[in-house]
Design a protein that fits this description.
Elements (H helix, E strand, L loop, with lengths): L2 E12 L2 E13 L4 E5 L6 H8 L7 E6 L2 E2 L5 H11 E4 L11 H11 L6 H10 L15 H13 L5 E5 L7 H18 L2 E5 L3 H4 L5 E5 L2 E4 L2
Parallel strand pairs: 3-8, 3-9, 6-7, 7-8
Antiparallel strand pairs: 1-2, 1-4, 4-5, 9-10
The chain binds adenosine-5'-triphosphate and magnesium ion (MG).
The site of magnesium ion (MG) has 4 residues, from helix 1.
Length: about 220
């Protein structure tokens, strides 16, 4: 397995007691798959994705990526590991406002010392239809443009696993189709693994790795 999550709990303290968002969730996937996660708003999909992508820690349980128990990594080791292995498209993009689009997209590569990825950053912006926007700042872009930039940033280091939190949530049908085609294409050509949260039935139609997050657990959809 490329990723294995065992007995994952995530609890928050709430005024009326404890809020248990994830409740002993088990999940694993193999390399090269495209996994979809569905679930109602508030079900804990983003929470789960952040934990699987080792951006957040579970209250209990273990995440193993490529045989490495991520809870055993120190802060610097974890940052290095994540930067190399994992790409993340946030639901609310989190582009850095003081940097241009190109700088945002190129940033993970620069942090990894991979300046040769400059060309890839340009290529991804082009694929996203944003090459003319490279010098613009995030605040000058539409929601959908920011979303595509954030996806380009998630892909720039060619990570083994790409987590996408509603990658097409802000796009019209045609642009959403293009973005999804890119994901399928990358998966096919490079074997990159994708774990995608979505609300869109049209994306998951006919796919076999579809899971639903409900009451803190993930179940495969029949
Ligand atoms: N830092 C936090 N402190 C307290 N509660 C939190 C925190 N983060 C998330 N929650 C709660 O956990 C639950 C799950 O949130 P999450 O964002 O994971 O849902 P989601 O399934 O991604 O929803 P959506 O489809 O609307 O994006 C929600 O009830 C939310 O209020
Ligand atoms: Mg969410």
């Amino acid at each position: 397995m490329l990723l294995e999550a065992k007995d994952i709990w995530k609890c928050y303290d709430a005024p009326k007691g404890k809020l248990e968002v994830l409740r002993g969730l088990d999940f694993s996937f193999e390399r090269g798959k495209i996994i979809f996660v569905l679930g109602r708003s508030g079900a804990g999909k983003s929470t789960l994705l952040h934990i699987l992508g080792s951006l957040d820690k579970p209250s209990r349980g273990t995440i193993t990526v490529d045989g490495v128990d991520v809870s055993r990594l120190g802060e610097r080791e974890l940052a290095y590991f994540r930067n190399r292995k994992i790409g993340f498209l946030f639901q609310f993009y989190h582009l850095l406002p003081e940097f241009t689009l190109f700088e945002n997209v190129f940033m993970p590569a620069m942090m990894a010392g991979r300046i040769e990825q400059r060309a890839r950053a340009h290529f991804l912006l082009k694929v996203m239809g944003l090459e003319k926007r490279a010098g613009h700042y995030p605040s000058e872009l539409s929601g959908g443009e920011q979303q595509r930039s954030a996806l380009a940033r998630a892909l720039v280091n060619e990570p083994e696993i790409v987590f996408c939190d509603e990658p097409t949530g802000n796009l019209d049908e045609e642009t959403a189709d293009d973005v999804f085609k890119l994901i399928l294409d990358l998966n096919k050509k490079t074997g990159q693994t994708f774990c995608i949260v979505t609300h869109e039935e049209s994306l998951v139609e006919g796919r076999d790795e579809v899971y639903v997050l409900h009451e803190g657990k993930l179940r495969r959809r029949k």
